[in-house]
Design brief:
The complex is a heterotetramer. By secondary structure, chain A is mainly alpha-helical. Chain A has twelve helices and two strands. Chain A has helices spanning about 10-25, 35-60, 65-75, 75-110, 115-130, 135-160, 175-190, 210-235, 245-250, 265-295, 305-315, 320-365, and strands spanning about 255, 260. In chain A, a hairpin with a 3-residue loop joins strand 1 and strand 2. Helices cover about 80% and strands about 0% of the residues of chain C. Classes of the chains: A mainly alpha, B alpha+beta, C mainly alpha, D alpha/beta. Chains B and D meet through helix 11 and helix 15 of B and helix 1 and strand 2 of D.
């Protein structure tokens, strides 16, 4: 089979949309109130070493995905255990993202439509995309990102009259602790979630690409997220943490003249695209993982079944939106910590050792 | 199927019985008349030379296929009047006629039956001579052809006003006149088991990609069809993504457009009998390009092009967006607009979704009727359709006025780019269904699905969406806008990869700037 | 509801399993079958109104007990 | 090829859904009963009376927009709103509502009971204008016929929007009310509406403001005071300054139109933790109406006038602050919030006792009035003897 390949530009676009997907609408965290933007910056910096680590692992084994690396580094048995762990994580993450989207649509737009239907439509589209492969997802990201940028900047410009900059003050009014907590929250959602992409970025062009992609993508997405958080703060004040979907509410405040108002639907365009890319990536990675686990030739034959399972799982995972919000901000950071930090750390160390030893071995043999 | 088989059998039996000519003139004439029995357009004119009565000749041709004036003056008259007695040997009469008597640019002695058949059927004349088992094939193609006129399918205000005709040779001439270069190659082949239609693959050596060429020849070889009546047959037989509503093979009626595409490294396929010349590979962006773009001021041209692409976007999306907003997201509407739409919908029995479906259908019906009808009736259909029906439908409160406006708007927008017409109609319906299910989110998902589909489509290995996402030198300059000529120094990447340089940068720019 | 589910799954069966069968990819076919069976059981249970326990709450409890929040 | 199959498959599923279950949120516009405005009153037995102004459209060639009123009781606001279905037959549509009028009585009791549903529901929009009725019931205000528009609520919303060239009432959108309610060191003022007789009929007039202590109404400010409060809060964008120019010896009042105003509040914390506020008001005005014979083209005269005006304004503002401090004792100016923004440490210490401290916090007002023009005339109109 032809090797699938995505360009660095496409990968960067992909990672940006991956980040801004659900964090755009859910907001980065709820604890630090009007200092949430500082938390965002903090989260970004906290994530930086992790991202370096992910990129390093990927660049040690070019053209290999996360799952191939596990087997290479740990051998069959332990490798399979790791594969299983990350299948679970990406599967779960995908389900959560789909659920976020379902709750969003159900709450703000279509309360009477069953949440299952809205999620089904998203899942079907994701299945289509994943079956088309990473190349198509990458190209869609690259073609959609300019539109999203356009929407975001236009909406920000239009919301300038509604901004009250004194809402930012006092900076660090409640001390540093909530901000650090918020930073941790922002670290785990969305920045370190990009650990999932290690399963998808098997097709980057060069050895240097993972660094470039992770770095540039994270910086751009981070800046965007911080700007959006700031925007929500200066429009809504401290109450913005009370909303489930602060960005949406903030944009709904915009009214220019009599005609340009109630434009919050444009924001949901951004959200829908983001969620689509994010859950597609999760679906892709978990299907690839399962394919690797059972030594299938191609992951495409199981995409539909995995997608359907993901849909059912996301349907049963929460009972209500209250539960979702609590989970997303309180439990999730702790739950995701092993997947985002501990396991990658183990893999990283093992991989380094393995590569060094291999090199030595090669030198000796020569 | 049965008919085809019989014909083939017939051909075979002919070849087996007497596959060559004999020396008797009468027998030969009879032989031909037997082959074309019951075909009274076959004319066999017998005559002999004034001075040499042994030189009995006969010309065989199909009535209407030949240029009779040419035949009379350049073939029959010289043979009749020339003194064949002088210094001519009867043994070599055929060669003498070929070389000294007949005034024709293309003449050939032959005794190959297949060759004879194909030439007489394409309008050449067969000259039979008493005592020879060979004949002369004299080029005399003629008969009625259409004049070169401005094509209806792509009119321009500025630019060359000639279009292809049904004659393949004329078409090739038109292309050849645009590109005076020895690297312009024409490769002929015949397709169609019954019709033996001539087609010509036309490309510029050194520009066209060999992989695409090979792929094209492979696909053409695979065609086994009894008839090719128009290039549309071939278009559908060689295309990628056969189920897609999008065209993956381009076509044009304009020699200048085809020449421009050849110069970008594409390959053209000219089909005899069709004024539409095909080009491969074809990408989506070409649907928004019109040849006039390249002759007008680039700012104006860019504006037109943006208009076209936005127009297609609106044509596909507008009904769906309207439906979504009016039936799902009423909060999006400004209050006065909401009130006016409400007032226009008072007393209308059909739901908005249904009335939109119906009106789109009606618009297409009117369009179809007006296209097929003769012009005066077509105009009447238009007037009845648009004015009377539209007005009356609103008056009678069957459909609300905004729906009519939306339909008309989307209907006009879709005509901005005629090549995408089919896909726009299909896509519009698909979006409408999606929007009626899930509102604006349905529309967005429909868009994503369409995009995924477009991303998957390739035309001869070239991604269909090529260039639509890039704004850089090679690909993006000629997509959403038409960059000024002095800045388009490179051909589009991938298609024109073999020789990227279109113009030497400095000279081009310098001359413009200076 | 269950009728819809059955229709959907039979469509899936036609579009999904037959190509695999024709291509003789037995491994893929088996895996798909098993996954399909799982998902079918799930949706059937859901459509009959059986509540399927979510792993979210146990995870939450475990984490809260560890970090004692 | 494959993708087409799945396209067909998914479409078939969609179509099945379409035909079998219908579309859930699909609703035609004419089936909506669009609510333009709502008035909330207190009924008997702790019940709420909700009156909605619903737009009625008669279609046809000359469509006409009128409104009708639905009044209904309920145990809670939402209950009352839903009960209206039993009356109207249609579900009310709240996304285009422009004003919410709350009666005095309810505001005195607790505003939260009113605004929570409105803010929580996803169909209602929280950028609706909030008004407090000075009349006995809010219903009465809502049910008056509008003067210029077809629909009373829309006229009220327009009035509020054009308030910027009057500056005699604040503008408060619902989410702003909640924001200020939650914020520390500031309380709400909400525009007040009352009825005024005009040509044999009563019309609603928006003037003055209602002062809240947390979510409870504690009193009203008249239009003059409201303007002064707005000056302090830096919310003046237009309006008039009217005064007598005593220094130049004019008897008739002189009107000046405000073009631009900038107010700065600076909290000053001294060593011994005493908190003072410096308020700097900088206004740009234009003379628009003079009766009298003074030439203002003269620089000296002009300066005198502007100084006098500044002094007047200062007096007014100081008086207003005093009055608010003594009469209401709540921080409608947002001094506390300002202190919190600039000096969160000090604020933390005083936050709990801010209301008491506010009553005798000292304020230093400095005003500046710049006169930039005098309309189209450069000289006063003279009577020819």
């Amino acid at each position: 089979m032809r090797r699938e390949q995505i360009t660095d530009k496409q990968a960067i676009c992909l990672i940006i949309i991956f980040y801004i997907g659900s964090s755009f609408i859910l907001g980065v965290d709820g604890e630090s109130k009007n200092d949430a933007w500082i938390s965002g910056i903090l989260g970004m910096f906290m994530a930086a070493p992790m991202l370096f680590m992910y990129a390093r692992i990927l660049s040690l084994f070019p053209e290999k995905s996360m799952f191939d690396i596990f087997e290479l580094v740990f051998g069959k048995t332990i490798g399979k255990a790791f594969i299983l762990i990350y299948i679970w994580y990406s599967f779960h993450l995908g389900a959560l993202v789909i659920r976020n989207y379902g709750e969003f649509i159900n709450t703000v737009a279509m309360p009477e439509t069953p949440i299952f239907i809205t999620m089904l439509v998203l899942t079907v589209v994701c299945m289509l995309a994943v079956r088309s492969g990473i190349e198509v997802i990458g190209r869609i990201s690259a073609s959609v990102l300019p539109i999203l940028f356009f929407i975001i900047t236009t909406v920000i410009l239009m919301s300038i009259p509604k901004m009250n900059f004194h809402f930012i003050k006092p900076i660090l009014g409640d001390g540093i602790l909530p901000v650090v907590k918020g930073g941790f929250s922002a670290f785990s959602f969305p920045f370190a979630e990009s650990v999932v992409l290690m399963g998808g970025f098997f097709s980057l062009k060069t050895k240097k690409s993972p660094y470039k992609v992770y770095l540039i993508g994270t910086v751009i997405a981070g800046i965007l997220i911080i700007i959006i958080t700031l925007r929500s703060i200066v429009i809504l004040g401290e109450t913005f943490t009370k909303f489930y979907f602060p960005t949406y509410v903030a944009v709904s405040m915009i009214s220019l003249g009599d005609f340009i108002q109630r434009i919050e639907l444009t924001v949901s365009v951004v959200f829908v695209f983001g969620v689509f890319i994010k859950s597609s990536m999760c679906l892709l990675v978990s299907s690839k993982g399962i394919a690797k686990l059972f030594n299938l030739q191609d992951y495409r034959s199981i995409v539909i079944q995995v997608g359907i399972l993901m849909l059912y799982f996301s349907y049963t995972v929460y009972d209500s939106i209250m539960e979702m919000k609590g989970w997303a901000f309180i439990v999730y950071p702790y739950y995701a910590f092993p997947f985002q930090v501990i396991f990658p750390l183990i893999i990283f160390m093992a991989a380094e050792i393995k590569v060094r030893r291999n090199k030595k071995g090669d030198e000796n043999s020569i | 199927m049965i008919r085809k088989k019989n014909l083939l059998d017939h051909d075979q039996s002919l070849e087996q019985e007497n596959s060559s000519l004999v020396k008797s003139l009468e027998a030969n004439i009879e032989f031909f008349q037997k082959i074309f029995h019951d075909n009274e357009t076959l004319i066999a004119r017998k005559f002999q030379n004034k001075y040499l009565p042994e030189a009995k000749c006969c010309v065989l041709y199909f009535d209407g296929m030949v240029d009779t004036q040419k035949l009379n003056e350049k073939v029959i008259q010289p043979i009749l009047n020339t003194n064949l007695n002088e210094g001519l040997s009867i043994q070599h009469l055929l060669e003498e006629l070929e070389f000294k008597v007949i005034v024709s640019d293309k003449i050939k002695a032959s005794n190959d039956l297949n060759e004879m058949m194909s030439s007489i059927m394409t309008g050449d004349t067969i000259l039979l001579l008493q005592g020879f088992d060979k004949c002369l094939l004299i080029s005399s193609k003629g008969g009625p052809t259409r004049a070169i006129v401005e094509p209806d399918s792509a009119r321009v205000i500025r630019g060359p006003k000639e279009g292809f005709t049904e004659s393949i040779i004329t078409n090739l001439t038109l292309i050849r006149r645009k590109i005076n270069n020895q690297n312009l190659k024409f490769k002929f082949r015949e397709l169609g088991e019954i019709t033996h239609t001539k087609i010509c693959i036309c490309y510029i050596e050194g520009l066209a990609l060999e992989e695409i060429m090979a792929e094209l020849e492979k696909r053409l070889d695979a065609i086994k069809i009894d008839a090719i009546l128009d290039s549309g047959y071939i278009q559908e037989l060689i295309r990628d993504a056969p189920f897609s509503p999008y065209e993956t093979v381009g076509y044009s009626e304009r020699p200048d457009a085809i020449a421009a595409k050849l110069l970008e490294g594409r390959i053209a396929i000219v089909v005899d009998g069709s004024p539409f010349v095909l080009t491969v590979p074809y990408v989506l962006a070409e649907a928004f390009q019109a040849s006039e773009d390249y002759y007008n001021n680039f700012i104006f041209a860019s504006f037109n092009r943006l208009l076209r692409s936005v127009g297609i976007f609106i044509a596909t999306g507008l009904p769906a967006i309207y439906l979504a907003i009016v039936t799902y997201h009423q909060e999006m509407l400004p209050t006065p607009l909401l009130l006016s739409i409400t007032s226009s919908r008072q007393g209308v029995p059909f739901p908005t979704a249904l009335s939109l479906f119906l009106m789109l259908l009606v618009f297409d019906v009117i369009r179809e009727a007006a296209t097929r009808m003769p012009t005066p009736i077509g105009q009447a259909v238009n007037i009845v359709g648009t004015l009377v029906l539209g007005q009356a439908i609103v008056e009678a409160k069957i459909v609300s006025a905004p729906v009519i406006i939306i339909t008309a708007f989307s209907g006009i927008m879709k005509l901005l780019s005629p090549t995408t017409l089919g896909s726009v109609i299909v896509l519009r319906l698909f979006f409408l269904i999606m929007a009626s299910l899930m509102g604006i989110y349905g529309y967005i998902f429909g868009m994503i699905m369409a995009t995924i589909h477009l991303m998957n489509v390739r035309s001869f290995g070239v991604p269909y969406m090529l260039g639509l996402t890039s704004f850089k030198n090679h690909n993006g300059q000629d997509i959403w806008i038409r960059a000024p000529w002095w800045s388009m120094t490179l051909r589009p990447k991938i298609i024109g990869v073999r020789n990227l340089v279109r113009q030497s940068t400095k000279i081009g720019k310098g001359s413009k700037m200076g | 509801m269950i009728i819809l589910v059955v229709i959907a799954y039979s469509l899936l069966f036609i579009f999904e399993f037959f190509p695999l069968y024709n291509q003789k990819q037995w491994r893929d076919l088996w895996l798909t079958m098993i996954l399909g069976l799982c998902s079918f059981t799930l949706i059937a249970l859901l459509s009959f109104g059986v509540k399927i326990p979510s792993p979210a709450m146990p995870i939450k409890n475990v984490i809260l007990s560890i970090f004692g929040k | 090829m494959k993708s087409i199959k799945y396209l067909i498959l998914s479409n078939m599923i969609f179509l099945n859904m379409f035909f079998l279950t219908g579309c859930w949120n699909y609703r035609e516009v004419e089936k909506l009963a669009v609510v333009a405005g709502v008035a909330i009153d207190k009924g008997k037995n702790n019940q709420f009376i909700v009156t909605t102004e619903v737009i009625q459209i008669s279609g046809g060639r000359e469509s006409k927009t009128t409104s009708t009123y639905i009044t209904m009781e309920g145990k809670s606001i939402f209950d009352a709103v839903r009960n209206q279905i039993s009356f109207a037959g249609k579900k009310l549509y709240w996304s285009h509502t422009k004003v919410v009028i709350v009666s005095k009585e309810i505001a005195r009791h607790n505003m939260l009971s009113v605004i929570d549903w409105y803010n929580r529901d996803s169909e209602t929009r929280s950028d609706v204008n909030l008004l407090v009725s000075r009349e006995k019931t809010a219903k009465k205000v809502l049910e008056q016929r509008a003067l210029l528009e077809d629909i009373n609520s829309f006229e009220l919303a327009d009035t509020l929007k054009n308030q910027i060239s009057l500056s005699k009432a604040p503008i408060k959108e619902l989410w702003g009310f909640i924001n200020d309610l939650e914020a520390q060191g500031i309380v709400n003022i909400v525009p007040a509406v009352h009825l005024k007789k005009n040509k044999n009929m009563y019309s609603p007039q928006i003037m003055g403001a209602a002062v809240f202590d947390n979510a409870k109404l504690i009193g009203f400010l008249n239009s003059e005071e409201t303007q002064e409060v707005l000056f302090v809060k830096d919310e003046v964008k237009g309006g008039l300054l009217i005064d007598r120019d005593k220094t130049n010896g004019l008897k008739a009042p002189i009107s000046m139109e405000i073009f631009k105003n900038k107010t700065k509040i600076e909290p000053v914390v001294s060593r011994n933790n005493e908190i003072k506020f410096n308020i700097k008001v900088d206004t740009r005005v234009d003379i628009d109406e003079i009766v009298g014979n003074v030439k203002y083209a003269n620089e000296k005269v002009l300066k005198k006038l502007s100084n006098n005006e500044a002094k007047n304004l200062k007096n007014r503002i100081e008086h207003c602050i005093k009055k608010v401090q003594s009469e209401y004792g709540v921080d409608i100016f947002g001094f506390g919030a300002k202190l919190r923004e600039d000096n969160p440490k000090v604020w933390k210490k005083v936050a709990s006792s801010w209301n008491d401290r506010f009553k005798n916090v000292s304020v230093n007002v400095s005003t500046k009035v710049n006169i930039k023009g005098s309309g189209l005339f450069s000289e006063p109109i003279k009577m020819g003897d």
